């Protein structure tokens, strides 16, 4: 399998994971002045509002990502295969980190213009720690906006990096993503107000193949399987 194909598929899985946890999400490409170049490529920006609820699903949001209870939560997701490190383009000022963060915050549109510069420096400093935990969880910037309290959390999704009890960094790995997605789509008991059988094409081209794959395994009474099983089946 081609590494780029695997990387793009992993980004789709992260996108689905964020969506199932209540985040509106998209990728983003900051602009560059030099012709033929881009500022960088932000894998996913997730935006979640504190009033989010989907009680009919009978599935809680994943405690693993420690979603703040009373803030508009913004996740800047970096998707990696093994490296517990953010890209230089958001941590190195010589690699456009200031310009890229400025464009990201301006694009999101929740921050007062006079506060952008100081927020950018704080985010560069935070991301430079490459996932170092703060109080046992994902580190964050807190900002009191005109629309309420906002948290900004650069977050690493590192698919092949296993965890130990002594880890000092916070990240989400591929097994954890797969486990949560399976939990959402494959209940052992029929839900009262949430049918889990419907036309899976409703998920659109980004997610329908993943959803159908998981639900088909469950229907055939197969185990969750591995990420490699999924890659072999869905990456053509």
Helix/strand/pairing category: alpha+beta
Share of helix, binned = 25-40%
Mean pLDDT, all residues: 95
End-to-end separation: 8 Å
Shape: globular
Strand adjacency order, main sheet: 1-2-3-5-4
Unreliable residue stretches: none
* Biggest beta sheet attributes: 5 strands, mixed
Question: Care to describe what's here?
Answer:
With 236 residues, the protein is of the alpha+beta class. The protein is built from 6 helices and 5 strands. Strands 1-2-3-5-4 form a 5-stranded mixed sheet, sandwiched between helices. Strand 4 and strand 5 form a beta hairpin. The N and C termini lie close together (8 Å).
Question: Main traits of this protein?
Answer:
5-stranded mixed β-sheet, 236 residues, alpha+beta, 6 helices
Q: What does the secondary structure layout of this molecule look like, with pairings?
A:
Elements: H1 3-20, E1 24-28, E2 42-48, E3 72-80, H2 97-108, H3 116-127, E4 141-145, E5 148-158, H4 174-185, H5 204-219, H6 227-234
Parallel strand pairs: 3-5
Antiparallel strand pairs: 1-2, 2-3, 4-5
């Amino acid at each position: 399998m081609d590494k780029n194909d695997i990387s793009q598929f992993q980004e789709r899985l992260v996108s689905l994971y964020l969506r199932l946890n209540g985040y509106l999400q998209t990728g983003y490409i900051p602009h560059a002045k030099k012709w033929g170049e881009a500022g960088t490529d932000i894998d996913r920006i997730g935006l979640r509002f504190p009033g989010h609820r989907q009680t009919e699903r009978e599935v809680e949001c994943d405690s693993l990502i420690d979603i703040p209870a009373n803030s508009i939560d913004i996740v800047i997701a970096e998707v990696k295969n093994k490296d517990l490190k953010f890209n230089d383009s958001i941590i190195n000022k010589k690699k456009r980190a200031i310009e890229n963060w400025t464009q990201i915050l301006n694009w999101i549109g929740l921050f007062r213009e006079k506060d952008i510069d100081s927020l950018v420096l704080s985010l560069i400093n935070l991301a430079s720690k490459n996932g170092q935990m703060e109080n046992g969880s994902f580190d964050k910037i807190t900002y009191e906006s005109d629309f309420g309290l906002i948290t900004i959390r650069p977050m690493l999704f590192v698919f092949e990096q296993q965890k130990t009890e002594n880890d000092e960094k916070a990240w989400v790995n591929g097994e954890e993503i797969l486990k949560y997605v399976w939990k959402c789509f494959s209940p052992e008991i029929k839900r009262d107000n949430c049918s889990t059988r419907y036309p899976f094409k409703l998920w659109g081209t980004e997610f329908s193949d993943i959803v159908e794959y998981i639900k088909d395994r469950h229907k055939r009474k197969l185990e969750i399987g591995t990420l490699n099983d999924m890659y072999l089946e869905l990456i053509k």
